[in-house]
Specification:
155 residues
Length: 155
């Protein structure tokens, strides 16, 4: 039960939820901002070709650093695996994988259907996919650094 509550809290209280909520408010009250982003992406062939790869880049970064946390690269990780709340780390890594993969799917969809999607929705989808995947990648990187720091400090 405690783990379910932790996963629920993780899903609701997160920087990614804040990003999506803020962009939803912008989409509702000031769609012209996101429409300008969508128009810019649609009008410039170079931007529409390469910008959607940003969420995929962040997905790769997230996977790279999360593997450093989970794979037994050295004997220093043994203490981490024996920690009684190790499942909290794995739960968060699984959530980060879900978020970054979803962001990449959104980016690929934008790439494929860029002509059919209206500009405001395209701006919303691109901005949310990029910011969410970037936030996740940054958080996984910072978590990896902090855990390494703690493990080395208490070795």
């Amino acid at each position: 039960m405690k783990r379910i509550l932790d996963i629920t809290r993780l899903s609701i209280v997160s920087p990614e939820t804040l990003i999506i909520a803020a962009l939803a408010l912008i989409f509702y009250w000031a769609p012209d901002i996101l429409e300008a982003v969508g128009e810019k992406i649609k009008s410039d062939s170079t931007m529409s070709q390469w910008l959607p790869t940003l969420p995929m880049l962040f997905t790769g970064i997230s996977f790279q650093y999360s593997s450093k946390l989970r794979a037994p690269l050295d004997s220093g990780n043994k203490k981490l695996y024996d920690w009684f709340e190790y499942h909290r780390i794995t739960d968060r890594l699984i959530a980060s994988h879900i978020l970054t993969i979803t962001s990449s799917i959104i980016a690929i969809s934008l790439w494929i259907f860029s002509k059919e999607i209206n500009s405001a929705l395209m701006g919303f989808a691109f901005t949310s996919a990029t910011l969410v995947s970037g936030s996740v990648a940054l958080n996984v990187f910072l978590a990896c650094q902090k855990i390494r720091e703690i493990l080395e400090k208490y070795e």
